[in-house]
């Protein structure tokens, strides 16, 4: 009972861990004893209880069988997964908010960290109208985005590199006023001392090294993580063997993209309707 990790009651995965711990304590079992009944390791149980590892549907079924809790933990996992967030994204966000360096590549839309409130709302409202997410899920997305953006103002701030495909600045979102304000925010972002903004022009063609959004994180201990995303799936990688090729491709993309000065000029011309 000594030095037990305190769990955040507002985090659904932490709530799962807390409920699992309480059910185990009620029966007087150690983590190893519960693990033996579930067919997994005590280390696995510990990681789930402390929020270091997300609970899976299979883990929840095993926990319910071992603890005699009906479908309690299975329903909790369903609630965790029934959100507007892609698999792997919640864990990615926990890493992002403490990263020392963030490298972004985006296609089609402005990446979340660089979005204005109005632009982000237009994206979420569009998803609600299409029936892709509910209004509650849209609110969840916007709330989480605000928290992520707030993390950029911490001291010292992270170094943020952003390479945007030209489609990001040319695709109109939310109408003229919203789009103009968004372009203004990109220019302001480029002027910060801890940021680099580049546009990857359409002319790159096959030299564009990514065909999906990618975010690369360098953490304070210099370990790295890569998060890539498709329309229906997110994937977080922390293994160096997987992350390093992403990092190499990102550096190649930076070399091919327009310089920050050229990119800001292009955004300014688009803002004035010259392009």
Give a structural overview.
There is one protein chain. The chain is of the alpha/beta class. It has 2 domains: 12-81, 434 Repressor (Amino-terminal Domain) (Orthogonal Bundle); 89-114 and 152-272, Endonuclease, Chain A, CATH 3.30.870. It has 12 helices and 6 strands. A 6-stranded mixed sheet has the order 3-2-1-4-5-6, sandwiched between helices. A hairpin with a 5-residue loop joins strand 4 and strand 5.
Provide the fold topology:
Blueprint: H1 12-26, H2 31-38, H3 42-49, H4 57-67, H5 72-81, H6 89-96, E1 101-106, H7 117-129, H8 135-150, E2 159-165, H9 166-170, H10 176-190, E3 195-200, E4 214-218, E5 224-229, E6 234-237, H11 240-256, H12 260-272
Parallel strand pairs: 1-2, 2-3
Antiparallel strand pairs: 1-4, 4-5, 5-6
Helix pairs in contact: 1-5, 2-3, 4-5, 7-8, 10-12
Task: Identify the notable features of this structure and list them briefly.
6-stranded mixed sheet; 434 Repressor (Amino-terminal Domain); alpha/beta; 2 domains; Endonuclease, Chain A; single chain
Short note summarizing the structure:
The protein has 275 residues and is an alpha/beta fold.
CATH homologous superfamily identity of the largest domain: Endonuclease Chain A
Span of the ends, CA to CA? 65 Å
The CATH topology of the largest domain corresponds to Endonuclease, Chain A
Q: If strands are numbered along the chain, what order do they take across the biggest sheet?
A: 3-2-1-4-5-6
């Amino acid at each position: 009972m000594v030095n037990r990790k305190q769990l955040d009651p507002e985090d659904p995965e932490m709530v799962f861990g807390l409920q699992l711990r309480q059910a185990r304590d009620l029966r007087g079992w150690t983590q190893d004893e519960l693990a033996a009944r579930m067919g997994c390791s005590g280390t696995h149980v510990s990681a789930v209880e402390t929020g270091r590892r997300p609970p899976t549907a299979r883990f929840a079924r095993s926990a319910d069988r071992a603890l005699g809790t009906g479908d309690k933990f299975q329903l909790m996992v369903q609630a965790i997964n029934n959100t507007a967030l892609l698999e792997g994204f919640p864990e990615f966000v926990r890493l992002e908010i403490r990263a020392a360096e963030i490298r972004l590549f985006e296609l089609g839309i402005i990446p979340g960290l660089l979005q204005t409130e109005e632009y982000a709302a237009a994206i979420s409202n569009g998803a609600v109208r299409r029936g892709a997410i509910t209004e509650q899920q849209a609110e969840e997305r916007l709330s989480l985005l605000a928290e992520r953006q707030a993390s950029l103002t911490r001291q010292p701030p992270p170094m943020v590199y952003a390479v945007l495909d030209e489609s990001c600045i040319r695709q109109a979102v939310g109408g003229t006023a919203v789009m103009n304000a968004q372009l203004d925010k990109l220019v302001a972002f480029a002027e910060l001392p801890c940021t680099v903004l580049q546009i990857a022009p359409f002319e790159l063609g096959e030299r564009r090294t990514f065909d999906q959004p990618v975010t690369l994180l360098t953490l304070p201990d210099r370990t790295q993580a890569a998060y890539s995303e498709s329309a229906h799936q997110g994937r977080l990688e922390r293994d160096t063997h997987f992350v390093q090729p992403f990092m190499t491709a990102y550096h190649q993309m930076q070399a091919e993209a327009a310089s920050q000065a050229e990119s800001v000029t292009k955004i300014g011309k688009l803002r004035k309707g010259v392009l």
